[in-house]
Write a structure and sequence with these properties.
single chain, 308 residues, alpha/beta, five-stranded parallel β-sheet, 31% helix, 17% strand, binds NADP nicotinamide-adenine-dinucleotide phosphate, binds glyoxylic acid
């Protein structure tokens, strides 16, 4: 069995070491050292080469290194080729940590206190209990569901918005376009954990921000193309929004001089909210290959009709 890996080289070395321990029968090759492309069964990629099928005509499955699988050019892929996104506990845990940090920081007014510190101002702001802080998660999938658990434990008033109804303890479920307004109207801290699809591109825009209660905050950990930068800046400058924690942008990295770099109400991180952890990802990959070869359903199979 032959696997080609095309992503960060240093992490690829870890994948190679782990696979050699766990599945020595697998021949693992790291891009650009692909061996005979006709032999390649599985491609594991973040940014794949163009025309994947011309490179690897006998490919059986295309695996994304990440939770998102929006980076592939689906039009160039045969409809029957399975595409699988990454579901693994290390990636999930990273997102839980980041979103918990962001919500606690926003709820406790940290963007404002950091500004006050820079101005040498010792000034108390009113603090409301978690139960009076309404958190809303857009996208209640693998990651959205996981981030909601500790937020419920902290006592936040939690809701989720998704295409299909959810039944999670302590989380009010809002479904589809018809319930988006009601979901936004009750949300003080909005977390975007949606996949990038035709329906979610540009979704974080002026009309959405206008439906949030004045002074709401945003945590954007989905994909860069979901957020309209200019609309966010206007919403912050008009105090419709109070703060934003932004991990993903379009483009990445942001150009020098982009207003997000220095905006006092924006915390910006370089797409690190969560990262695939080789130790657990290699096990998830092996489990999916075993499933595929036994004719069982793989975890994280992309539904091309839905777009995620
Ligand atoms: P997932 O399991 O596929 O969950 C996606 C969720 O979004 C589902 O609940 C789905 O609803 C909902 N959804 C999709 N389209 C929708 C729409 N048009 N309207 C309402 N709800 C919609 O995905 P995941 O594993 O949780 O990952 C989510 C995304 O997080 C990834 O695609 C990636 O973009 C992003 N991510 C970012 C980082 C980072 O470091 N910043 C790391 C990992 C992932 P249903 O449940 O009803 O299908
Ligand atoms: C990172 O953004 C991922 O999709 O895993």
């Amino acid at each position: 069995m032959n696997i080609v890996y095309k992503s960060t080289a240093s992490r690829g070395e870890l994948w190679a070491r782990l696979l050699a321990e766990l599945a020595p029968e697998i021949n693992f090759r790291q891009w650009p050292d692909i061996g005979n492309p006709l032999d390649v069964d599985y491609l594991v990629a973040w940014q794949p080469p163009e025309n994947i099928m011309q490179w690897f005509p006998n490919l059986k499955v295309l695996f994304s290194v990440g939770a998102g699988a929006d980076q592939f050019d689906y039009a160039s892929l045969p409809p029957e080729l399975p595409v699988v996104r990454m579901i693994e506990p290390g990636l999930t845990q990273g997102m839980v940590e980041y979103v918990t940090f962001a919500v606690l920081g926003l709820h406790r007014g940290m963007p404002r206190y950091l500004q006050q510190q820079r101005q040498q101002q010792w000034l108390e702001q009113p603090a409301k209990p978690a139960a009076q802080c309404r958190v809303g998660v857009m996208g209640v999938g693998t990651l959205g569901e996981a981030v909601l658990q500790p937020l419920v434990q902290f006592g936040y008033d939690c809701a989720g918005w998704s295409r299909t109804a959810k039944n999670l303890p302590g989380v009010q479920s809002y479904v589809g376009e018809a319930q988006l307004n009601a979901f936004l109207a009750r949300t003080d801290i909005l977390i975007c954990l949606l996949p990038l699809t035709d329906a979610t591109e540009g979704i974080l825009n002026a009309s959405l921000f206008a439906q949030l209660p004045p002074g709401a905050a945003l945590v954007q950990v989905g994909r860069g193309r979901q957020l309209n930068h200019q609309h966010l800046l206007e919403a912050l400058n008009q105090q419709q929004l109070s703060a934003a924690v932004i991990d993903v942008t379009q483009p990445e990295p942001l150009p020098e001089g982009h207003p997000f770099w220095r905006h006092p109400a924006i915390w910006l991180t370089p797409h690190i909210a969560s990262q695939t952890q080789p130790e657990s990802a290699v096990r998830a990959l092996l489990d999916n290959i075993r499933r595929f070869e036994n004719g069982e359903p793989m975890q994280g199979l992309v539904d091309r009709q839905r777009g995620y």
